[in-house]
Amino acid sequence: MSFIEVEHVSKEYISEGKSFPALKDISISIEKGEIFGVIGLSGAGKSTFVRCLNYLEKPTSGVVRIDGTDLSELKEAQLREKRQKIGMIFQHFNLLMQRNVLDNVAFSLEVSGMKKKEARKKALELLKKVGLEDKKKAYPAQLSGGQKQRVAIARALATEPEIILCDEATSALDPETTRRILEILKDINKEYGITIVVITHAMSVVEEICDRVAVLDSGELKEMGYVSRVFKNPHSKAAKRLIYDSERSVG
Amino acid sequence: MVGDSLFNVILSGTGETLLMVLLSTALGYFIGLPMGILLTVSDSSGIAPNAFLYKILDGVVNITRSIPFLILLILIQPITKLIVGKSYGTVSTVVPLTVAAAPLIARMVESSLKEVDKGVIEAAISMGAGKLLIVNKVLIPEAKISLLIGVTISLGTILGYSAMAGVVGGGGLGDIAIRYGYYRYETKVMLITVFVLVLLMQVLQYIGNYLSKRYDRRKA
User: Which fold has domain A4-85+161-250?
Assistant: First the structure.
């Protein structure tokens, strides 16, 4: 049994009486400690997919199992508890603008019920981990994009999650900053054995850190396999297009 | 009326006005803040969508907001009398002022809370935050500057309304302006009360602006 199991998941959005399929019958298994990539162009359904993994979006049909637990069987409070073990970082960082850096990291701990004083102490340790100890009193508006994402990573790490979901986490960052963020993700994967799911439209990100990759296109799973294989020998049109485009943009 | 007595009249009128405005705005927030929060969370894009609750609150706010204050003042006189014991005077005016302030404040709170970045709310949900925690630790703190500006606008609007209460003997500066200035043709008194009202408004606005600049963390 895999650590994250997605079985025949479909998701439809209803808008003005019409239904729009965002995910069509997706089945993916992700192993513990793996860095798994999900790549696709915008509108491919990858953001919806990653939100199904912590039930920010409930699938219309199909099953999502995390460490053997079917998320649909959890009650509201149990789901909240489960989410504390699934960290998430975002393209636009989503930090609290009116809290300083230290209190932003402490926030996830406060959510898990820790007292503020204790939360701050632990938050400081995590800031050291991401190299932002000296910025603890700063507010997000005073930080660069890369620094904000490091704060978000510290915040996600604080609750000692088993999984970290990255939703286009480096898409708003320049290549150099992207590399540093990916380095940090790689480190925490190695050090804590945290399973990481990376959603991206950039081949370079997948190439840099992922073990395996799934290619999504128009809500369908087109291809899945080890990164080296998919790169060398893409089977699907969608994968070929993504690889070709990325090579062209680099060259 | 000259000298000391005029000064005393204006002074006590200012005191009455401040009492009315501060008390009814505070009571207005007591009712309007929870209403605004409920409007925000129960809206279709909120964290606890509830079309039925939203429609009811929305309707109540719209109806009360569309009644001109002067009409409201007279309309609810029986209720005012029931609560305070009489329908005229400073304390009595607090009742219609509160009734006018609450829906205005509810709307203002709603609009402030809806400005909060959806991404931040989503992040909180992804951490396992419950609805109450999101309201207390995300929505309100993140919207605090906008909420503060809302307080300033509410105080200013209620100050304006309070002056209208003078028409029905409501007490305060508006009352003085009407009694001395309008009925007795003492233009000087009217001008002085208007001047004091303008001054009060300026001071409110200044304090509001200062605090919102001082505590806004969104700037680099």
Answer: Rossmann fold (3.40.50)
- pLDDT for B153-196, tens place per residue? 999 999 999 988 877 778 889 888 888 888 888 888 888 998 99
Q: What is the pLDDT of residues B14-37, one digit of tens each?
A: 999 999 999 999 999 999 999 999
Q: What is the DSSP letter of B33?
A: H
Residues of chain B neighbouring A56 (CB-CB closer than 8 A): 122, 125-126
For chain A, which ranges sit under pLDDT 70?
A: 247-251
Q: How far is A16 from chain B (nearest CA, A)?
A: 14
Q: What is the ipTM of this complex?
A: 0.93
Q: Are strands A35-39 and A212-217 parallel, antiparallel or unpaired?
A: parallel
CATH no. for residue B193? Answer: 1.10.3720.10
Q: Where in chain A is the domain with CATH 3.40.50.300?
A: 4-85+161-250
The boundaries of the domain holding residue B17 are 3-219
Q: Which alpha helices (DSSP H) does chain B contain, by range?
A: 3-42, 51-66, 69-75, 77-84, 90-114, 118-126, 131-133, 140-142, 144-164, 172-176, 187-215
Global confidence as pTM: 0.91
Q: How many CB atoms lie within 10 A of CB A170?
A: 27
- Determine whether the interchain pair B119/A92 forms a contact, defined as Cβ–Cβ distance below 8 Å: yes
Interface test with B, best of A94, A95, A149, A157 (most B CBs within 10 A): A94
